[in-house]
Amino acid sequence: MKRNTLCIVFLLVVNHLFAQDCNQTLSGRVIDFHDGVPLEGATITFNSTTIKTDSNGMYKMTGLCATSYAFTISHEDCNSQVVTININEVSNKDFYLEHHLNELLEVKVSGNNKTKTSSSQEETINKDVIERYSSAALGDALREITGVSSLNTGSTIVKPIIQGLSGSRVLIMNNGVRMQDMEWGDEHAPNVDINTAGNVTVVKGAAALRYGGDAIGGVIVMEPNKIAAKDTLFGKTVVTGATNGRGGAISSEIIKGYESGWFLKAQGTLKRFGDVEAPDYVLSNTSIFERGGSLSFGNNKFTQGWDVYYSYYQNEIGVLAASHIGNADDLIESINSGQPSVIENFTYTIDNPKQDVTHHLGRLRYFKRFEKLGKWTTQYDFQHNQRFEFDIRQTEELRKIPSLDLELTTHTLTSDFVLDSKFDYNLDFGIVMRYQDNFADPSTRARRLIPDYDKFDAGLFVSGKYDINDNVTIDAGVRYDYNQIDAKKFYIKTRWEEQGYDQEFNDLIIADEGTQWLTNPKFDYHSISATTGFNYVFEDSYELRGNYALAQRAPNPSELFSDGLHHSASRIELGDLRIDQETSHKISFSFQKNDENWTWEIAPYANFINDYILLEPTDVELSIRGAFPVWEYRQTNARLLGIDAKLTKKWHTNWHTNHQFSLVKGKDTETKIPLINIPAANFRNSIVFQKEDWMGLVMSLESDYTFRQNEFPDNIIVFSPQEQEDVLLDINTPPGDYHLLHMNADIRTPFFKENELNIGLTINNITNNKYRNYLNRQRYFADEVGRNFLLRLTFNY
Amino acid sequence: MNTRKFLSMLAIASVLMYSCSDDDDNPAVVNEEEVITTMTVTLTAGTDVVTLTSRDLDGPDGPNAPVIDISGPLSANTTYAGEVVLLNETETPAENINEEIEEEADEHQFFFVVAGTLNATTMYTDTEADYPPNTGTNPVGITFNLTTTDASTGSFSVTLRHQPTKPNDGTLADAGGDTDIAQSFDVTIQ
Prior knowledge:
- With about 800 residues, chain A is mainly beta.
- Chain A contains nine helices and 44 strands.
- In chain B, the strands form two sheets. In chain B, strands 1, 2, 3, 4, 5, 7 and 8 form a seven-stranded antiparallel beta sheet that branches. In chain B, strands 6-9-10 form a three-stranded antiparallel beta sheet, with no helix packed on it.
C-alpha cells in the first residue's frame, strides 16, 4: 500500500513538473540517525538528477519547482529511504538515514559476533561446529573451546565447566533469556537444544555483568542467527546418523523475512538414540529421546521492533542401570569389579532409573532506538521447568511414579538502555526483576530433596566502555543483586538436631509433623559485582586484554536445603542453612595474535574465591539398608590458577594445524587440600587439510590427550557392614590418562538448483580406546563410550 | 503498539502471574511408605528363643544409626528355626512389610552370611511357592535354619535384595539386585 502511494505521488510530481515556476531551493543535511554524525557522500535522487552530500553531510538543490517531489536518499551500508516533500512549504530539510542497519540486521552465518566484553577472555563457536554437534549436547560442542570441559553423568548428561567451575557458577543465556532449569544438580544438564543457536559465545568469567552478577565461572551466550530485513525465505536441515547408540538426530529450521522488518522463524529437533556402547560392553539403559521446537516472529525496524519467541524442549534420558546402587558396599563392589553390574543386550527402551525433563521458554521483547542517544530494550520472559526422576523402587506401583517431581516456574522482567551514540564510549544500564516458584510434588511419596520455595531477585547494573584512542579501550561496570528465598522445608527431627539447627534455627519451625519439622527458612542476600579491564591492540595483529572481576553468588536451593538420601546417586547429600554467599576475585589476561599464518592466544588467570561452596564426600551414615556415603556442602577459601593456550599455524595454502592446551589447579587454601572435580590438563592437536577445488573438502585428524588428575582430595575410610571392618572407599581417586583420536571430513556439493548439500563424516575414538573420565560421575561403574561413526547431511535451501 | 501500552500490559501480566502463583498454604508432609525401620530375626530351638533386632526409626534418610538388640547368646550344636519379620514403625500401628515381600517373593531374597570365626551354617527352608500366587522353586529366606557347632563369636548378617538374579549361588555377588536391608549382628555361640 505504501509503495503504491509513493508511485502515485511520483506520477503527480512528473505531471506537474513543467507547469510550475521552478526556482525553489531545498537544502539541509543527511545525518546518521543512530549517532547524529553527518554522512558524507550520501546521494539524493529525484527524477533523473542525483546530488551528493559534502564532508559535512550538507546538500543544496536548486531549480526545484513549487510542487511535491519524491526524493530517494541513499548511502553506503544504509537502506535507501524515499521521502516526499512539498517544495512549496519546505525549503530546509534534514534527512536521517539508518546507518547501522547492517550491523543490526545482517545475516550472520559464521564468524565472530561483536565480543560480549572488551577485556575479558572469551571465545565463540560458529555454525560449522554447531552443525557438527547437532546430534550431541551443548556441553559436548563447548569442549571445542580451550578451557571449557564438562561434568558428565554418562555420555548424555553433560554440564559445561568453564575454567574449573560449573553448575550455578555458569550462566546460560538462551536467546536472551537466562536459563532457570535447576542447574544446581550435578546430574542436571542444561535444558537447551544446541540447534536453536546460530553461534555460542563463552565469556570465561563474570565480566559480562549485564547477564548476571553471579557468573563466577562464566557465561554461555547462545544466540540465534539474525534475520535480515529483506524479502527472503531460507532454511536448513541437518540429519545425523550415528553407529554407536544406533540412532540419529534431525534438526530443521525455516526462516521467512520481509523488507518491512517482519520475520518468522520455525525450528524443530528430534533425537533418538539407543544404548551406547563402550568397547567391551553395552552401557545398558543409556538411551535418550529428545524433542525440541521453537517459533519466533516479530517486526524489527531500525527505530523499533518487537518479537515473540517460544521454545519447547523435552528430554527423556536413561541413566546407566549399573549406576543404581544400594549402599556403600555396593559402591565398593562396583569400584573393585571394574565392570558394570548390569549388562543387557542393546535396546532403545528407556527404563528406570531415568530422567524426564521438559522446559518451556517464552519471551516478549520490545526495543526502541532513540535518535542520537541509544537503544532501549525491555523484555519479559517466562520459563517452566518440569523435572521427573524415576528410580528403581521397591514395588512395581512405586516405580511408575517419579521419586523426584519438581516444577520450577520463573518470570523475569528485564529492561536496559544502551547509550551507544557517541563514537568513543558507550554505556549500558539496566534492571532485572525475577520471581520464581518451585513446587515439589508430594505425590512422589518420597521426601523432597529440594523444598517448595518462592524466590525474588532484583538486579541493577551499569557498565561502560571507553576508547581512549584507536588502540586502547577500557571498560568497567558494577552490579547490585538482591535475592530473597522463602522456603517451606521439612526436616527429619533427628537430622535437625544432628546439624545443630536446634541451637540456631528453632524459630524457623512452623509445624510439627510427627517425625519431621516443617520449617520456613527465609533468607536475604545482597551481592555486589564489579569489573574493570582494558584492551590494547598494537601492530595491527596483536591484542592484549586484561580484566579484573569481582563476583558474588548467593547459595542455590541445593546448597542450602539438600538433606537426605539422593536415590539416583545413592548418597546422602547435606546442604547447610548457614551457607552464605561466595565471593570471587578473578584476574585474567589474554594475549593474542591474529594474522594470516599465525593465530595464537595465551590466557592465564587466577581466581580467588572466598567462602567457596563445595560438595564432597565426608563420611558414611549407617542405616538398616547399609552404609551410605555422605556428601556435605561446606564453605572454604579456594584458589584456581590456570592457563589456556591455543595456536593455529598455517603451513601451506591447504594445510594448517591447531594446538590447544588448558590447565587448571584448584586448591582449598584453608586445608591445603586440592579441590574436588577439577578438570585434568588437556592437550589437543589437530592437522587440517583444506582444498576448495575438491568440493570444498575440509579434513582433519585430531589427537585429544587428557592427563591424569594427580591432585584430588583424600579418599575416605568407612565402616562396611558387609566386611565388618573399616574399608577404604576409593571414591576420589581419578582414573588414568587417556588419548583419543578423532577424524572429521566435510564436502560441499550443489544440490537441486540453488541449494547446497554438505556431507560430513566424523569418527570419534577411532582406536576404540577403553578409558574412564575423572569428570564423569559414572566412572565408578563403567567405561566411556567407544568408537562412533557419524554421518551428517546438511541441506541449505 | 506504543511503548506505554506495551509496558503497562507487561506490568499487568506479571502482577497477574505473581498473584496466581503465590500460595501461603503449607506443603503436605511426605512420610516415605516403603521404609523398613525394623527387622527382627527370631531364632527358635524348642524353648530356646533368641531374637536379633535392628531398629532404624529415622530411616536411611535420618542421621541415626540403627539400634541393635541381641537378646542373648546362641547355644552350641543346635539347629534354630529362623524367621525374619520386617516392620515399618513410623506408622501406628506398625505396618508389616513381610506381606509385600511375600507378594513379590519371586523378586526378593534374603541372604545370610556368617563371617569371622562364627561356627554356624544357614539353610533356606522356604521357596517362592510357599507364598501364593508365586509358584517358583527358588528360596526366599523369610524362614531358614541356622545350625551352630562349637562355641565361638563372629558376625551374622542378613541382607534383603530386591530383584536379585534368581536362581543364584546364594552369594551376594552372584545375586546382584538392590539392597533393601543390610544388617549384621555380632553373635556369640556358647
